[in-house]
Fold:
Amino acid sequence: MSIRVIRVLLTRPRDRWRVLALAKEAQVSLGWTHAVVTTLQEQRYVVRDENYRVKIVDPTRLLKRWAAFHDFLSQNEYKTFQMFEQNLDNVLNKLRSVSAPYALTGLVAAWLVAPSVRPVTLDIYVQSWRETDKITKAMELRPVEKGGNVRLVLPKDSGVFYGAKVSDSVRIVSNVQLYVDLVNYPARGEEASVELLRLIQENWSKALTE
Structure:
């Protein structure tokens, strides 16, 4: 659950947090949050101000450390599908019609946020397997045992949805979640993460100097 605390700090770098408020935002216990903050402070990722509020000071190093231990495919459950539509605009139009809760990640999400690597697979976080029928029908997906160009992904931690945003009527995970998903992602994921990191750092630079 330490990742939930880290995710909040990285997603909202401008904020200064009381430990209790941080625990509530991350939806973890106060004791656990205090332990995580203490460790992060010892490792100089965060500091406390004169009012003992927690503030992140080295977000890039913390994000890279998180990403180094994160593996998108091995740390989640997923089902694979084949989608015959190849035009990305048409694919996104189908996704916009989906009524079930979801959040896009992987190469398609990276293409929408910070284009660099042309996507060949579509990865979609779902909140439960019960909702997948709505997605498969709307997007005309056919289940396959191997290969496939679409993955519906059930995360082990629903915290992946924290900070998700809507861009052009498509729901996408936060930039920090997208980055860690990409770093150890196969098929040029690390390459796509480089451009995304530049965007994240630009946003952080603005937030931390305001």
